[in-house]
Amino acid sequence: MSNLHSKSLEELQQLLGKRMNALRLLRNLDQRTTAERAGLSVRTVLYLEEGRGATLNTLLRVLRALDALDGMELLAPMPVGKPLPLPRGPHAKERLQHRIDKKAKSEKKQSAKKSAN
After folding, report:
1. 94 and 61 within one domain
2. pLDDT of residue 2
3. Given this model, what pLDDT does residue 79 score?
4. What are phi and psi of 56, to 5 degrees?
5. d(CA 11, CA 82)
6. Are 99 and 71 in contact (CB under 8 A)?
7. pLDDT given for residue 103 in this prediction
8. Tell me, what's the pLDDT at 57?
């Protein structure tokens, strides 16, 4: 899998567009049918697939039209656990960052232990 963190926003949009195009073709749908199912214009679907910018509304409509909303779980998984309480007072940012770093280090250790087993 490629390193998505190193890509620009424009590159990410183009990659998403290519994947949407491939998904549509996998479903054996043309852009017109997809647009009709999504309640969008063909041009809007074309722009999405070309990575030329799209709204979240457009993306969700096309995903629904392609019967691919299950991908949302990967894009925005439901958080598990409780959030850390925010510290207050002087040096609050530093204390919060320390807590986050400590928790990440602990999770990394646990992950390494699971991988070793």
Report:
1. no
2. 60
3. 81
4. -60, -35
5. 34
6. no
7. 86
8. 94
- Segment-wise mean pLDDT, segments of 10 residues, the chain, 117 residues: 82 93 96 97 96 91 93 82 76 82 86 76
Q: Are residues 59 and 97 in the same domain?
A: no
Domain range for 19:
4-75
Kindly state whether residues 29 and 67 are assigned to the same domain.
yes
**Residue partners of 7: CB distance under 8 A and separation at least 6:** 15
Verify that 12 and 39 share a domain, yes or no: yes
Spatial separation of the C-alpha atoms in residues 104 and 11, rounded to whole Å: 29
- Return d(Cα 95, Cα 13) in angstroms, integer: 36
Residue type, 35: A
What are the Cα distances from residue 19, in Å, to 23, 65, 81, 88? 6, 15, 32, 44
Say what the pLDDT of residue 117 is: 67
Q: The tokens 């054996």 sit on which residue?
A: 28
For 37, residues 6+ apart whose C-beta sits below 8 A from its C-beta are: 29, 64, 65
Q: Distance of alpha carbon 17 from its chain centroid, rounded?
A: 13
